[in-house]
Amino acid sequence: TVLTKAHTLRIIIENGRATGVVYLRDGEEKTLLAARQVIVCGGAFNSPQLLMLSGIGPGDELRRHGISVVHDLPGVGQNLQDHLDFVMAWKSKSTDLMGIGLRGGVNLIKAMLQWRRDGTGMIATPYAEGAAFIRTTPDLNRPDIQLHFVIAMVEDHARKLYTGYGFSCHACVLRPRSRGEVGLNDIDPLSAPRINPRYLSHQDDEKTLLKGVRKMREILQAPALDSYRHRELHTANADTDDELLDHIRARADTIYHPAGTCKMGLDDLAVVDPTLKVRGIEGLRVVDASIMPTLIGGNLNAPTMMIAEKAADMIRAEA
Ligand SMILES: Cc1cc2nc3c(=O)[nH]c(=O)nc-3n(C[C@H](O)[C@H](O)[C@H](O)COP(=O)(O)OP(=O)(O)OC[C@H]3O[C@@H](n4cnc5c(N)ncnc54)[C@H](O)[C@@H]3O)c2cc1C
Q1: What are the extents of the domains in the chain?
Q2: Is the CB of 288 under 6 A from ligand 1?
Q3: What is the pLDDT of residue 163?
Q4: Is any ligand 1 atom within 6 A of the Cβ of residue 53?
Q5: How far, in whole angstroms, is CA 63 from its chain's centroid?
Q6: Looking at ligand 1, which residue's alpha carbon is closest to its atom 44?
Q7: Residues marked as catalytic
Q8: Is any ligand 1 atom within 6 A of the Cβ of residue 304?
Q9: Which ligand 1 atom sits closest to the C-alpha of 301?
Q10: Which CATH number does 84-180+196-254 carry?
Q11: Domain 7-79+258-318 in CATH 3.50.50.60
Q12: 8 A C-beta contact, residue 184 and residue 61
């Protein structure tokens, strides 16, 4: 049975064993007992939050919020990693691209009709139409930057809109060395956890992103785009490293790949063991992107599904 619109408030732990959960549904608190084990899969922000609210986590953080420490596990919420991303946008004189304007409105209506007719045309676009994995220096043995090419001007996760037409390209650092953390803002399970990504806290990430941005600009200056390219939206006057870094520091942001906050391993900061069992507590697993010890150099959805498939195999093998 899958219970939808249910919010888990805490894990019940008795004598060092997870025996169930307390959850909120339709305004009512209810208890669910586990036949065999409890599997936490709240994602890289909420899995550590739920463990901490249940008394499992760094002792100091729990005590600061008046939570009784069931199991002092210092790695819970630590080791947060994410792909930091910088978008460059170009204005275009071409009205063929997606954009806001009279011509764009007419194009959109035509495109909707075309899509209804045969499922093709502009609105059949995946939006991020091109991607590339690149090495910023030839001596690297694997790519360190991923590019996403988008057929519209993008800023602030598309919350900020511009009139006119254009295109954008994202560059993200594939293997960041900066590490952030997730903690608690308060003890309300419905509150957002405290998230400090500490982007660019390791100098290498800044250097890699700067090289990636220069490479991205070089690619986007290609003659094939001459008829589309007009001028850079924000960075037109940024040429020196310092000028570009100012833009990176001001506008680089997540590309939605948080991981690592309940990392798998055997060291003191590992939260789960190699079979994804929470270290020091019986009957409790974490199965989601939070268990990745290091962020993978690509998008996270498929590897997270792989983690779940592997966990299912391990759980079945124990049954
Ligand atoms: C906007 C966006 C775009 C993305 N695009 C891509 C992409 O194109 N390609 C790609 O590979 N990856 C993409 N990703 C990343 C990918 O979706 C995630 O890495 C992946 O979903 C992580 O899976 P997860 O199981 O760890 O966490 P999630 O998918 O976040 O699942 C956690 C679930 O737990 C629920 N939950 C949390 N706390 C509680 C609680 N207390 N009680 C009950 N339920 C709870 C949440 O509602 C959520 O449904 C994108 C992510 C975002 C946000």
Answers
A1: 7-79+258-318, 84-180+196-254
A2: yes
A3: 87
A4: no
A5: 29
A6: 7
A7: 257
A8: yes
A9: 11
A10: 3.30.410.40
A11: yes
A12: yes
How crowded is the C-beta side of 139, counted as CA atoms within 13 Å?
0
- Contact at 8 Å (CB) between 184 and 53? yes
What is d(CA 271, CA 199) in angstroms, rounded to the nearest whole number? 22
In this structure, the residue with its CA closest to atom 49 of ligand 1 is 42
User: What's the confidence (pLDDT) of residue 161?
Assistant: 86
Among 262, 300, 309, 310, say which to mutate for ligand 1: greatest number of ligand atoms within 8 Å of CB: 300
Three-state DSSP class for residue 289: helix
Cα–Cα dist 148/169, whole Å: 6
Q: How far is the CA of 307 from the centre of ligand 1 (A)?
A: 13
For position 240, what pLDDT does the model report?
97
Does the beta carbon of 41 sit less than 6 angstroms from any atom of ligand 1? yes
ipTM for the complex shown: 0.99
pLDDT, residue 101, reads 86
pLDDT at 103: 85
Q: Are 205 and 127 in contact (CB under 8 A)?
A: no
> Which tokens go with 198?
């500490």
Q: 127: Cβ–Cβ under 8 A, 6 or more apart, which residues?
A: 98, 150, 151, 152
Residues of the chain whose pLDDT is less than 50?
A: none
